[in-house]
Amino acid sequence: MDITLYNDIVTVIRHFSGLTRNCAKKLQETFPNLNTNTLYSILSVEYQRRMKSNYGKSQNNRNRYWDLFRKGVENQERPGILVKLSELFDIAPCLMAKLILQKYFDDQETEKTQQDKKEAREAQINVNKYLKNTYMIPDSDLAYEVFLCTVFDNLYSPLADAMKMSLGQQYEIRLHKDAMALGLTFRDEEYLRKFGYDKTPDLKLEVPVAIDGFVINWIESKALFADEELHRDYTKNQYLSYWNRFGPGLVIYWFGYLKKITESSDKRFIVRDHLPSHIKKLDISKASIELANGLK
């Protein structure tokens, strides 16, 4: 993707005030010709970076959020109080729910006897399980409010996490099918981990192949859009390990990437948004004969 178009998308996201699900609709209306998954991926990354800053600052305002929530309940406001607060203070609904749950269990621990405090502390630490199972929250008003947060949050909710994982698996399966259709021989990461590799690519080719003149030994699949920062993080935490162990490879960002993240001089790996079909395979039999002749 061209940097100008990318900056236009990011500008819309940064100037949007409200829930990410509504921002996603705004992006689709503004950029109707772009892939929905591409827009959602850019939105997700951009919003998560914003939340890293906002959520940290919001920890100091838990008491204020709690007071506003309790006041809303006492005034019998319509359900969705926490969702409204999340919009007002620019915090993802499920992150707002976590803050409120932490405050709730803090208060519960203070009120309980010494015998029950251990249970309250454990509940405070494991607030994520209450997002997944809101029926476990003792306060019925709070339980319903947290449930609504999981419904309206399309980035941090348990459902969003499950969908993200499912999407990643879907494109890994697609990569496997595409590789098999091209007649590539490979081992997957599950096989490699049995042999003690802690960091493994999605596919390790048994026989190297050439793509646009570049020989690759492994392929990594990412169901997302990559900007410079994200690509740099993955390079540091994953791709360099693959390169050190297996040599050069191929990274696939299925939803696109910024053109400027790729360098023609980079000999460690190449980047594409699909698995190219114009692959040159190594003739093993010919190579073996040449090697044998060379040893005579």
TrEMBL record:
Pfam families (UniProt xref): TPD
Superkingdom of origin: Eukaryota
UniProt keyword Methyltransferase present: no
Keyword Cytoplasm attributed: yes
Compartments, as annotated in UniProt: Cytoplasm; Nucleus
Alphabetically ordered keywords of this record: Cytoplasm, Nucleus
Chief location of this protein within or outside the cell: cytoplasm
InterPro entries the record matches: CDIN1 (IPR029404)
GO CC aspect terms: cytoplasm; nucleus
PANTHER family assigned: CDAN1-INTERACTING NUCLEASE 1, SIMILAR TO CDNA SEQUENCE BC052040
Name of this chain's protein: CDAN1-interacting nuclease 1
Organism: Sitophilus oryzae
Upper classification of the organism: Eukaryota, Metazoa, Ecdysozoa, Arthropoda, Hexapoda
